Amino acid sequence: MRTNQPRTIYLSEYQVPAFLVDHVDLRFELFEDGARVHSTLTIRRNPEFPDQGEALVLDGDSLVLESVRMNGEAVPENGYQLKGEQLLVPEVPDHFELTVVTWIEPQNNTRLEGLYKSSGMFCTQCEAEGFRCITFFPDRPDVMARFRTRIEADRAAYPVLLSNGNDVDRGELVDGRHFVTWEDPFPKPCYLFALVAGDLVEKRDTFHTCSGRDIDLRIYVESRNAQKCDHAMDSLKRSMRWDEEVYGREYDLDIFMIVAVDDFNMGAMENKGLNIFNSSCVLASPDTATDAAFQRIEAIVAHEYFHNWSGNRVTCRDWFQLSLKEGFTVFRDAEFSADMGSPTVKRIEDATLMRTAQFAEDAGPMAHPVRPASYMEISNFYTLTIYEKGAEVVRMIHTLLGPELFRKGSDLYFERHDGQAVTTDDFVRAMEDASGRDLGQFRRWYEQAGTPVLDVSDEYDADQGVYRLKVQQRIPDTPGQTDKQPQHIPFALGLLGADGADLPLALADGDTDVPASRVLELTEAEHTFEFHGLAERPVPSLLRGFSAPVRVHYPWTRDQLMFLASHDSDGFNRWDAGQRLAVDVIQALEGQADDGEVDARLIDAYRRLLNDATLDQALVAKMLNLPSLAYLIELAKEADVQALHRAREKVLTTLAGTLREDLLACYHRNDDSDDYQLTPEAIARRSLRNTALAWLLRIDDAEACDLARVQFDRASNMTDQMGALRALVNSGFAAERGEVLDGFYQRWQDDPQVVEQWFSVQAASTEAGHLGKIRALLTHPAFEWTNPNKVRSVIGAFAGQNLSEFHQDDASGYRFLAEQVRRLDDLNPQIAARLVAPLTRWRKFAPVYREGMKTALEMIRDKDGLSRDVYEVVHKSLA
Ligand code: ARG
Ligand code: ZN
């Protein structure tokens, strides 16, 4: 067992850096057995640092130090110290040049941090603290320097040599080697440094900026992927245009490059001028990628591009401020996606992610504020709270200020802080200064963890025509935080009359010019709002558009929910009412004997949805999805997974059985023989058709089985082929399932992105993903322990999506996960720590699950040499 506990880092201990680095000159000699890195730093003391006699301390990690020189002179071995992983030089002048040579082994780097090899190419990932795995450096985002980078490698194996900025020099060297030198004119923190060396093909295009400059756009991929770049390139151009139009942000370098790599811990990385992407987040063609993948790629390309301003030009002072760039950038990419597709559908997807996964995180042992106060390992804080809740916080500022003042605020933020490393508070201050609004109380959103709960009750006074709405807010305790103060919450609502239309919202008697939807501002623990001039008792439509990341409790009747689901003028709340109705029906069936009846009103609602072609079909496609098992678990006090699963299955199979004819009609009506198009309408058609197919196969309908097989064979795009495959895999037709799975693998075995989908469709399936099958997938020739996508597509999909198989009362699923985490911890701690997540909320489950989850956490805790990443998650979960 690990004896010394990793150190906790506190925001309250922040100090400005003792030294600043103005310039970094790097020379990489890349070889098959390692790489030599020559780094020359131009350093000066920071006049703002209190002690001007401070020693120079540089961060390092897994480096072999070869030599140190100061202003060109060799520093003798007693002139510096290696302390832990850091390099300490006690006596240094106020200005100097330090040259350090280190040796590293990218070919053995399975952590995928710093410089490593992936499918034969060299690449880097430096955020958050990977640069210290390359050379000694003050590895913190508030040290910003200009970088010049020379890369030397064998020309035949590595014809393409890339780094940030512009290529300023290139040439031949002896022994078939060559070099390219890159210079980045913009000072940047080292986490934005990138290097790529490989045998890659280049896909080029040009973007004409608003000020008339031509930007050279390049996507680099392995030659087998040359046909999979078009969508990313189009997405990039749309993002660049959108950022000019909506935020007034123009691109600043002459070249913008994207590189696809197969082994990558996260989705993608916004390195200045040289974005590096997980292959699965950039490569797509209609025959290999689903609609969901196309949309994800568009969003991620946009996200990384938008970071050029929200992240790179203005960066974070320290890693506690991570949401400064991530929350803001997720908000920006969400608005972009809304503009490119269906805004209501995008909002439903984001709210679903928040309510299913972020609320769970915020109620668990790893709960932390959007601006955390402490951490052990920063990699563990690339969370849904930092990204998604952080984006919701920015969205609330947008809602409170309105679009014009918000834009004034963002203009001021970029202008005031260009070239600086700043804090979330600086962001909020810019919004305040530009708008004149006081966001003092609003700042609690950054400081307090936990999901606020709004308890809403109402009364109607028929004599006076007054409707009173009482809203109480409370914020649950989270680790280390109790007795929280009320937050400033924008609460959008409407009131529906008996005819389904919005009633005017008059907050005082005789109000004229009253809107049909309004945003109330909650600032106190309790408010009572009075609406006047109402001749009838309204049905409230609360938190329209998910105007704040909160839980709303209100005692809607099923009839009211039915009514909202078919009449609410707010598309989001129509969907939400349908979900609440379905949740209520499932919860009521939970634990009932098999003869429990499914409320006929739910069946009616689904029948109407399936048959009403006048509705927005994209919204209908979303409304058809039943609440997920993960969401039902999140809503439960003490989740009995198997009971919830059975109740949900009962509702699903009852709906499918009763609505069989309607589903078949829906399937045929949405038969889409046109060319593959990526419009919201075409996506909705494919989604409806595949949902209908999936439901029919859940009741083992023979006609649907035939339809699925034909669709599988004839599909002209991956969405339809995968739709048929998934439906068959999740059916009881075992022979057909085996056949299509084999056929699919035979056809696509050479395409890693498709093989990942093949793994996950099985691992996530209740029918096909029993533990024995999961173990078999781990020994499949296409499975690779060192490839995070493969690990996620089998182990992650099983523990995160196949909940009824993972949560077995004999704890076999938990033990399995613990074994895999222990194995991965030595290879890739970041990935191992993420896989622990499904176990962390053990307290939330019924006793029969709880003990097994806890024991699995203890199994992980007791591993020798546990990484800091896994240590933090496991110990906080058991605390
Ligand atoms: N900044 C990247 C993005 O959101 C994520 C990089 C995360 N890296 C990590 N090692 N946690 O676009
Ligand atoms: Zn990001």
From TrEMBL:
<dbReference type="Pfam" id="PF01433">
    <property type="entry name" value="Peptidase_M1"/>
</dbReference>
<keyword id="KW-0862">Zinc</keyword>
<dbReference type="InterPro" id="IPR012779">
    <property type="entry name" value="Peptidase_M1_pepN"/>
</dbReference>
<feature type="domain" description="Peptidase M1 alanyl aminopeptidase C-terminal">
    <location>
        <begin position="559"/>
        <end position="879"/>
    </location>
</feature>
<protein>
    <recommendedName>
        <fullName>Aminopeptidase N</fullName>
        <ecNumber>3.4.11.2</ecNumber>
    </recommendedName>
</protein>
<feature type="domain" description="Peptidase M1 alanyl aminopeptidase Ig-like fold">
    <location>
        <begin position="450"/>
        <end position="554"/>
    </location>
</feature>
<dbReference type="InterPro" id="IPR001930">
    <property type="entry name" value="Peptidase_M1"/>
</dbReference>
<dbReference type="Pfam" id="PF17432">
    <property type="entry name" value="DUF3458_C"/>
</dbReference>
<dbReference type="Pfam" id="PF17900">
    <property type="entry name" value="Peptidase_M1_N"/>
</dbReference>
<keyword id="KW-0482">Metalloprotease</keyword>
<dbReference type="Pfam" id="PF11940">
    <property type="entry name" value="DUF3458"/>
</dbReference>
<dbReference type="GO" id="GO:0016285">
    <property type="term" value="F:alanyl aminopeptidase activity"/>
</dbReference>
<feature type="domain" description="Peptidase M1 membrane alanine aminopeptidase">
    <location>
        <begin position="232"/>
        <end position="445"/>
    </location>
</feature>
<dbReference type="InterPro" id="IPR042097">
    <property type="entry name" value="Aminopeptidase_N-like_N_sf"/>
</dbReference>
<dbReference type="InterPro" id="IPR038438">
    <property type="entry name" value="PepN_Ig-like_sf"/>
</dbReference>
<keyword id="KW-0645">Protease</keyword>
<dbReference type="InterPro" id="IPR037144">
    <property type="entry name" value="Peptidase_M1_pepN_C_sf"/>
</dbReference>
<feature type="domain" description="Aminopeptidase N-like N-terminal">
    <location>
        <begin position="23"/>
        <end position="192"/>
    </location>
</feature>
<dbReference type="InterPro" id="IPR045357">
    <property type="entry name" value="Aminopeptidase_N-like_N"/>
</dbReference>
<dbReference type="InterPro" id="IPR027268">
    <property type="entry name" value="Peptidase_M4/M1_CTD_sf"/>
</dbReference>
<dbReference type="InterPro" id="IPR014782">
    <property type="entry name" value="Peptidase_M1_dom"/>
</dbReference>
<dbReference type="InterPro" id="IPR035414">
    <property type="entry name" value="Peptidase_M1_pepN_Ig-like"/>
</dbReference>
<keyword id="KW-0479">Metal-binding</keyword>
<comment type="similarity">
    <text>Belongs to the peptidase M1 family.</text>
</comment>
<dbReference type="InterPro" id="IPR024601">
    <property type="entry name" value="Peptidase_M1_pepN_C"/>
</dbReference>
<keyword id="KW-0378">Hydrolase</keyword>
<keyword id="KW-0031">Aminopeptidase</keyword>
